[in-house]
Each structure stands twice: as C-alpha cells, then as structure tokens.
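Sequence only, no structure available. Ideas?
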Amino acid sequence: MLARSLVAALAGVVLSFAFEPVAVAYVMPFTLAAYALCTRELRSRAGFVVGLAFGVGFYFPHIYWMSPSIGLPAWLALAATEAFFYGVLGALSPILQRLRAWPAWLAAAWVAMETIRATWPFSGMPWGRLGFGVVDTPFAPALAYVGVNGVSLLVAVLGFLLARLVTTPRGDERLFTLGSVVLVTAASVVPALVPWTLATTGETTVAAVQGDVPGRGNDVLFDIEQLTQNHVDATVDLADRVAAGESPRPDFVVWPENSTARDPFEDATINAGITRAVEAIGVPVLVGGIVDAGPDHVLNQGIVWDPETGAGDRYAKRHPVAYGEYIPLRDHLPDSWVNSGQLARIPRDMLSGSRSTPLTIAGVDVADSICFDIAYDDGIKVQVDNGAEILAVQTSNASFIFTDQIEQQFAITRARAIESGRYVVVAATNGVSGVIAPDGSVVDRTQRRTQDVVVETVELKSGTTPGLGVGEALRAATPWVTVVGVVWGIMLRRRKPTASAQTQPTAETEDQPA
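Reply:
I predicted one. Tokens follow.
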C-alpha cells in the first residue's frame, strides 16, 4: 500500500500542474486514471489512505498561495480538509469499481465529491474543480453545453476509461473500452466545432477601475482613506479623458470589492469621495463597500451609486470566506484564539447575501459576484435565470497579490464566461481587472499592482445556455447516484459467496478472486 500511496501522491501533484500557474490541463485524465488504479481492489480503509495521499499531493500545492498570504495554519487546515474528501472518495472507489460500468459510476462520485466540498464544511472551497482547468483547451466550449460540473464529469469519465483500458485484457471488452474513450473525447470537443451562442440584445460601454492598494499592496486596511481616494482619482481621471475625447464615455463604471473598506454611509470623507467621482464621470458607479450591519456583523456589498439619486440597489456577497471574513463557531473558541493573529483582524462576522435578481445599472441587468462568489454555482445561475445580460466580478485579491491565486481566479472567471455565454467585467483593487468575452477569450486586462482603467464596449446577451441547467442538475443528482452505486457495489460483494456456494466450486476455482 505504501507504493500505491506514493504513486497516488505523485499523481495528485501532477494534477496541480493542470491549473495556474503551470496550466497544463491535458494531464488531468491521466492523473485520474492513476487515482482509479491506485485505489482498485483495496479494502475501503486502505482506499481512504491512498485517496488521501492523492488529495494531499494535489491540494497542498494547488492552494499554496494561502500560506504566504493568509498564514501557514490556515493553509494547512484548509488543504487538509479538502484532501480528506479525496480520501473519502478513495474509500468508495473500490466498491464502485465492482460495477460493470464503473468508470461512469466513479466519475459521478468524483463530481459529487467536488460539489460537496465546494459548499461544506461552512462555506466550502470550490477551488480545484476539473471544469475550471479547461479554459485553454478544446474542451472549453463544452462548458456552455454541460457546465463546469458536466465538464468535470467528462474529464473524469475519460480518465477512468483510460484506467479500465489498462486493466482490461485483449478482446471485445477492450475494444469496447477503447471505443468509449474515443466517443467521450469526441463528445467533449464537438462543441468547439459548434459553439453555443446566445442572442445579442444590445451593447453597453463599461469601465472597470483598478485604483491600486497603498503601501506594499497586500493589505486593504493599510490606508483605507487612500485606498478609496485612489479609485476616486482613477475615475476622475477617466472623466477628464472622456471630456477630452481620449476615451469613450462608459454607460456605467465598476469599482472593486473593498474599494471602500469602511462603511461609506458612516464615513463622511469616503462618502464625499464617492460622490465626487460619480458626479465627475456622470454615470452610475457600482461601488464595493464594507457596510455595518449592527455591532457584531458587516456586509460586503456592491452598491449602485447614481450621480443624481445617490446610493441605491445593492448586492451582498453570498459566500463569505470562513476564517477570512467570519469566524465559524466564534462563541465556542477560546478568546485567546479569536483575539490573536489573523483572527484578530475579524472583529465582526460577515453576513451572507441571498439576492437572486440582477442589479439594474444604467438600464443594464448585471449579475454581480464578489470575489470568491464567482467560483460557486448558485449565485450566477439564479441571476442569469432572472434576466442578467452581463456578469460583473468585484474582487479584492490584494492579500494574494504576490501569489498564483490571482491567475487561478481569473481562469475560473473565464470558465464562468463560457458557461454563462456572457461577457464578464472584472474590477480588482490592484489586479487583475479586465473584460472577458463569452468564448473565454480575454478582451483586455490590467497588470498587477498598477492603477489602471479598462473601458470596453460589450454585447448584452439574453437567454440561458444549457450548461447552467445541466451543471445544476448534476450538482443535485450525483450524490444520489453515488449512494445508489455504493449500495449496489456492496450488494454485489455480499451476493458472490452465496452464488459460489450454490455452484459447489472445485479447489481450482476456489483459488480465483471473486
């Protein structure tokens, strides 16, 4: 089992290379094949250990950016928690591999594992899903047809079919498996020949402002007033360029998350700065603000600030980050923990938003996402179902500005553009901001740690792609499919000794494995 664990851990490390910064997505099926082979024909306890080794090999490198940015304990705790899920799947893998069509059953279990760990425990961690890693491959257009979860399923099926090909002796079954590999691969790349497109209902010109973060650039709390002032200055400068005819006039402007890291309704200086910027540009600005919600809570909001009517419609972040924006089980933790280190920077817990309709900004229906929200399935789909014509991402990645998290999140955002069939406007405090087309291509983007403004005219889209519906259906169905498969696999194991006893096998057959 030691050899299997070492091979599984190595396969996990290789899987981490499928994502940014290396981004060699073609290794994914082969690493999954190794996962299946390493957990094959083991007892569930041994399968758990081998699966855990794979998870450790994958997830610790994949989110290593947490260590230098948030801290070593947070990285160790989160990576270990996520690796545990790969261990649980490893325990189920030998059971599911008893079924005749086991590559499909195990692939469904893989998707179930990805979607469960993306939401649990607490707010979960959606990073590392296979569907996020295909944006620069021929598999990418399939995101519009089957969604992130569907692409994860296709990649997993392909990988597990490769494992079955290795274990199947020559003959008709091997030819069938080889044909299945070809069929799944073909089905995955056909959307590249017939990409899904949505109807265009109009166009809008939008500006994404990246004001930059004072100081070293990795702490939005270093100088809160100057942080907001940077975004005010960048917006006023844009207004000057528009007046001089050097830039097109935007219909609306997007500021990033934490562009006001203090309540703009309570802080007169910050409120005045926003008002000055909005009046200068003369169009609505989607401001990112931390808003008080009582003595013990805050809200992380996108606020539509109109030059005539002031603050109006709002979107609140749906998925605050555990131990980054709120402290789970705060009342049950020792005061010495809560009041020291990184946790001391979270004196109040951030509440979750539940908005299901898009924001209306300058007559455009905008589906907002704040930072990590873009990696979750629920918020985007419900806003698109309710008429969103474009996506906006307000993000503050300053804590991770020196790490690979920046590019990983941008790749996830590109996957969401393809899945939803819509343009995405990204505004970040100090990188990376930009505009992404519905095919995932990058129309424009900024560099890190700069003050910059991206202005682009983009098409507005109506309708929904199949991918959003298929992805949601898979999220709901795959856990139940996994339960059925595991029960069936257990029943098959229990039935075999009975059948063997009824046929009264010879000594020769008794030595053969069940």
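The CA atoms of residues 22 and 477 lie 32 Å apart.
Hope that gets you unstuck.
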